[in-house]
Amino acid sequence: MIFSTATASIVGCNHAFSQKRGISKQDIVGKKMEDLSPEFQADGERSKNLALRILTRVGKGIMGPFRIDQITTSGELISVEMRAVIMPDSPDAVVFLCNDITDMDEELNRYIEKTVRYDSFFEDAPISISVSDPYDNIIEVNPQFTQFLGYSQEEVKGRSFSELTHPDDREQSADLNRKLVEGNGRFSMEKRYLHKSGSYVWGHTVAVALKDREGRTTQVLAMQQDINDLITAQQELVSQGDLMRSITENLNDGVLVMGTDLLLKYANEGAKKFTGLDN
What we know:
- The chain is α+β, with helices and mostly antiparallel strands and 279 residues long.
- It has helices spanning 15-21, 25-28, 38-41, 44-57, 102-113, 118-124, 143-149, 153-156, 167-182, 228-249, 269-275, and strands at residues 2-5, 10-13, 62-71, 77-86, 93-100, 128-132, 138-141, 186-194, 200-211, 217-226, 256-258, 264-267.
- A hairpin with a 5-residue loop joins strand 11 and strand 12.
- The two termini are 39 Å apart.
């Protein structure tokens, strides 16, 4: 997790991010978001646009996911999926939630490259994998898939993924699958899956089309990563911001919030009364 201003200047990070990047919290403070990614370093204009996208697309909600590549201090290139949360009380403060998807990409590429060892890899892969027909009907799933959603392999074979998708996500999921089958190389989306318990769990899905010699899609291979805890953390961050705003608005005492640029960003009703700011 990274804490940043809306101009993409880093003001802090948690231990998990510091450990993954191999850089101390002290050393990361003051850097720009583009300093962490060769993708943004290579193109100054894109790095400037990062802050602009946050300001224009996020508002008070969650932006993302968007993916960037980062280099650790040991020289390792890792793929990171990031989401930005702007807290309701401090529109100039941004929290970046980072999810390392390097292993997921590597597993997918390894799976495609080593189709000769399909059976062994499919069963032993450490991530949920499914194979479906072009019409989104499940052909087979691996053991990790059954752990993810709680169904046995027999219970899901033949079922449509539409049945296992939250109603609000079905249209987008079906549209992406249709485009994939018609020719788009792969797609990635976050959606809610129906767990056997009746609850919905969030999964990050990456899917590719498997084609015959004539270029026709015969099957769709997908990997599902459990991101339920990550989405819950995002929602809690936003709700905590709303709660803090509600509390401060109802305090008789004055509350003033200053930004890192030393400009006043927020004043509750109590502060306005004794400072005359409402005038």
